[in-house]
Predict the 3D structure of the following.
Amino acid sequence: MSKTIFITYILFFLQNSFGFAQPYYKSNRSNTVSFYSKAPLEDIQAVNKDVTSIIDIPTRNVAFKVPIKSFKFENGLMQEHFNENYLHSDKYPEATFSGKIIEYIDLKKEGDYEVTVSGKLTIHGITQNRTIKGKIKIEDKKAIIDCKFDVYLKDHNIDIPKMVVKKIAEKIEVTVHSENLYTEK
């Protein structure tokens, strides 16, 4: 699903579900998702700056879309193996998260907030219920989200061949930084 279609779908859903002129925060160009794998023989990390996100202010619903092929590695061969052998990015081109902020916070009021988001994380075609803790900072009509959580490869049916099991960790640390601009349309 392209970025435009994803955003259009979310906005259409929000507008039809909650009425028109709902305020929300939508992603700008300052979003990143990165991951780090610490294994006995090799550490692997990659960064993705092509992340789309949206936060519906009245409902506290949150959605993220991460195109898998947009992860960049220091080593091109690692990137190729990641896409072809592990994440099968032609078949599963994106990872998504959609959920709701559990705590009631006024997302229009400036401040720093510790939050818990409960929702569904889909990677490699497998959806898992997840509860993720993070921080939201509201300032200058922006919502800045920061969080860090672990993903276990087995939870998303990502197989590690035995010959490289010492090079790839079974648990991957994921870091999210998202800056979303206030919009009311």
Summary: Helices lie at 3-18, 76-86. The two ends are 23 Å apart (CA to CA).
